[in-house]
Design brief:
The protein has 801 residues and is of the alpha+beta class. It is built from 20 helices and 35 strands. The strands form seven sheets. The protein has a nine-stranded mixed beta sheet. Helix 3 runs antiparallel to helix 20 and helix 8 crosses helix 17. The relative contact order is 0.13. The N terminus is likely disordered.
């Protein structure tokens, strides 16, 4: 029997703090009756003339029974607070990501299976909660959704945006009486390095449930991949794979790299697992057969699971020695930018450097080298000559009237273009406008004095590096590092080193060596290991002419040095960033000597060095059109930005951009783009598709007059396994922090049946006062009867009736 507060008030009870007498009219009769019965008991035992301990126990038992019955006449009750039935909300929030379907330890049921069973509409646990609270079912992975029953929630979510969805739930329930949130999630799939101090402020306590069955976790997973594209000709791409082990796994592991577009195995490695190690890494060094965008797949699996890995249609459900195989594979994107890259070589005189540089670059199909060689200096404009003497430079005399009409005059230097794509290209000498110079991606300047350039051309070179983002390399000819003349010019500003004097070493053997920074730059090395590289340097040709320069500029790096016979060391190669571009300086004047004195079988080393140097110059030079892709952590979509420039590399406004995305199933989706107001020349859009596989974005950019400016492309991948498979199991640390900050606590799965009672004792928004009887309990009547029976038993034992 349960009394509510309203019926209790109508009976005019007596109140004593938290205790209430339900029948005050029986107080006097109970006292009188109890006193009388107590007197009779004592009188009856007094007549027996027995004074032993059994008699005392008998008296106590009978008086206890009388007291209990007398108290029952008063109907004692207790007053307390409890949540008003179904007046408070109790959201049940279920993680619907794929990781909840894992059967840890090869249990017959996953955690999601047990949730579906315990929180079904007719389940006793859920029915008990529904009697006390207004229960609501929510599911979340990337987004928060509601459902009538837990069975209606999805099971194939590919993300776990736990914190964001808790914030959204907090907004939805703003101002509503929420007793708490029952959270059923493994807490995996969140970004690493989360700051627990930045957890969302919630208006309700969160009660995360700790799954009971977490034993038997054995998992091998890829924890990360990194790609480094270099100008190292032997191995331009290095792919590093990191993987880790949870639990106890031994034996051999196969790490496989596959070209996913052609389904061709690029390389396969076998590693042995060690009992005392949980993290491993390995690297693949390879050179794709084709340039452009390529997609690769990395697989890691134990040799005992090879058949299961290769034959299973679903890695999530494959039967193997691991908890799951779905996190044993990862897709990676490799974008080897294709050319052609245009490089302008400007030299103050014909020299050996251009000969060997041109031979080396001819072997690189992606680089086009254009030379501009000065064959003769200009002469003073005003000089006394015979009137019969032609004003044309004598180098062009005798070649015919047509040639002499277009030839350089005495007061102009004689420049010969080599390797031009069009007949009129560089016909007027070194470029004088941005569209002429910005056409090139990099420039190499060798053995030419700063006075050769006009002030406008010097400023143009500066803009070529800082604004265009082009690469600039100074070579060490005798006219290049011309003391103060060079240092005070724009070229001196661009140089990574200060010029101390105008001197050059006399003939002396000087050996080349790489600094620590040089060893870390792949384009400076010609061998794959440090020991092999040092061996090569020791056998390398010595140089005799090196420019003497001052110290490095702030932010510059010394990549190579030369050392003479007395041990004096000086800078040989230095580089620095300048604006959007980069500048290098090769201070060796007779670098050609390396190729000239090469022994049989070693000539390719010098050519390879030239090719790698040129590749470094053009490696990351911006193009007129670029596509940049990045993930949006809030929505899970991919944001695509297309940046366009005109011929002078100013932002291209009023351009027409057409953008399409090819999905993994081959479907091509056109996308509309919108300009970014704060960034002229940039348009942006977003694309969402969580299907696993490779995506390719292609754009066509046209100027306002309809000319095609560029057709950039980019790509990205969606993994078969989402972030929640980076770690499997239960993220207890995160759940504890959420519970503590919100005012809740962890609930063991085995204690879910007592969760309603635990919440009843907590302070919830909507409470009510209720009164429940103390006397109307089975134990009260049982105790009274027990006392009477025990007393009767003692009497029988003593031989009394």
């Amino acid at each position: 029997m349960e009394l509510n507060v309203h019926s209790f008030v109508e009976s005019s009870p007596l109140m004593f703090a938290e205790f209430v007498v339900g029948s005050p009219k029986w107080v006097f009769p109970a006292i009188v009756g109890g006193t009388l019965l107590t007197f009779l008991v004592l009188f009856n035992y007094a007549k027996t003339n027995r004074r032993d301990s059994l008699a005392v126990v008998g008296v106590i038992l009978k008086m206890t029974a009388i007291a209990l019955l007398a108290v029952c006449l008063l109907e004692p009750m207790r007053r307390d607070q409890r949540p008003r039935p179904r007046a408070n909300l109790l959201p049940v929030v279920v993680d619907t990501s794929q990781s909840m379907g894992l059967k840890i330890g090869r249990e017959s049921q996953s955690w999601r299976d047990r949730i579906d069973e315990n929180f079904a509409g007719n389940a006793p646990l859920f029915a008990d909660l529904s009697q006390s609270f207004e229960t609501r079912i929510y599911g979340f992975d990337k987004r928060l959704s509601s459902a009538g029953e837990v069975a209606d929630l999805r099971r194939d979510g590919k993300a776990t945006h736990l914190l964001k969805n808790l914030e959204e739930l907090n907004q939805r329930l703003q101002g509503r009486p929420v007793a708490g949130v029952l959270l059923l999630s493994d807490g995996n799939g969140l970004a690493d390095g989360i700051d627990y101090d930045d957890l969302p402020e919630l208006d309700f306590p969160v009660y995360p449930v700790v799954p009971e069955k977490l034993s038997g976790l054995n998992d091998l997973r890829i924890t990360g991949t990194s790609i480094r594209q270099t100008n190292f000709e032997v191995s331009p791409i290095t792919l590093t794979v990191q993987f880790a082990i949870d639990g106890v796994l031994t034996g051999d592991v196969i790490v496989r790299l596959t070209d996913s577009q052609d389904n061709i195995i690029v390389e396969e490695q076998t590693l042995s697992l060690k009992a005392d190690e949980s993290s491993y890494y390995t690297s693949f060094q390879f050179r794709p057969d084709q340039v452009g965008l390529r997609f690769y797949r990395v697989d890691v699996f134990r040799t005992t699971d090879q058949s299961a890995f290769e034959s299973s249609e679903s890695l999530m459900e494959a039967n193997s020695s691991e908890t799951t195989l779905i996190n044993n594979t990862k897709l990676v994107t490799v974008d080897r930018r294709s050319g052609p890259y245009r490089v302008l070589y400007l030299a103050g005189r014909p020299n050996w450097e251009f000969k060997f540089l041109r031979r080396a670059v001819d072997e690189d199909a992606e680089v086009e080298l254009t030379g501009l060689l000065r064959m003769a200096n200009k002469e003073p404009k005003f000089s006394f000559r015979d009137q019969a003497v032609s004003g044309t430079n004598p180098l062009f005399q005798g070649l015919g009237d047509d040639a002499e009409e277009t030839a350089e005059q005495y007061d102009e230097p004689v420049l010969v273009p080599i390797g031009v794509k069009q007949a009129d290209e560089l016909a007027s000498g070194f470029p004088k406008t941005e569209d002429q110079l910005f056409y090139f991606d990099a420039m190499i300047v060798d053995d030419i004095e700063p006075e050769f350039f006009s002030q406008d051309q010097l400023k143009l070179i500066r803009r070529f590096v800082s604004l265009r983002g082009g690469g600039l390399m100074f070579l060490g000819g005798q006219e290049m590092w011309a003391g103060r003349a060079f240092d005070d010019s724009v070229l001196g500003d661009l140089s990574p080193v200060y010029v101390a004097s105008r001197t050059m070493d006399g003939p002396s053997n000087q050996s080349l060596g790489l600094t620590r920074e040089g060893m870390l730059e792949p384009w400076m090395r010609l061998r794959s290991t440090v020991s092999e590289e040092n061996k090569r340097l020791r056998s390398m040709t010595h140089f005799t002419s090196v420019n003497e320069v001052g110290s490095l500029k702030p932010g510059a790096y010394r990549l190579a040095t030369v050392t003479d016979s007395v041990g004096k060391e000086r800078t040989a190669v230095a580089v620095q960033r300048f604006g959007r571009g980069k500048v290098g300086a090769l201070l060796i004047a007779d670098y050609w000597r390396w190729a000239m004195n090469a022994e049989p079988g070693q000539a390719d080393d010098s050519y390879q060095s030239w090719r790698q140097m040129v590749r470094w110059l053009v490696g990351d030079v911006p193009r007129r059109t670029e596509i940049v892709t990045r993930d949006d952590p809030e929505t899970g979509a991919v944001i695509l930005e297309i940046e366009s420039f005109d011929e002078a590399y100013a932002p291209l406004e009023n351009g027409d951009v057409k953008l399409t995305v090819r999905q993994p199933n081959g479907a091509v989706v056109p996308l509309s783009v919108q300009p970014v107001p704060e960034r002229p020349g940039v348009v942006r859009t977003s694309f969402f598709d969580d299907s696993a596989g490779a995506y390719v974005a292609n754009a066509e950019v046209r100027s306002a007059d309809g000319e095609v400016v560029g057709t950039p492309s980019s790509g990205w991948t969606r993994q078969i396994a989402g972030r929640e498979f980076d770690h499997i199991g239960f993220n207890r640390g995160l759940m504890e922090k959420i519970a503590q900050k919100s005012g809740g606590k962890l609930i063991d799965e085995s204690n879910l049946d007592r969760f309603a009672q635990q919440l009843n004792s907590e302070k919830v928004p909507v409470m009510e006062t209720w009164v429940y009887p103390i006397w109307h309990r089975g134990w009260v009547l049982s105790l009274a009867l027990g006392c009477l029976c025990a007393e009767w038993g003692l009497r029988r034992y003593r031989g009394l009736a």
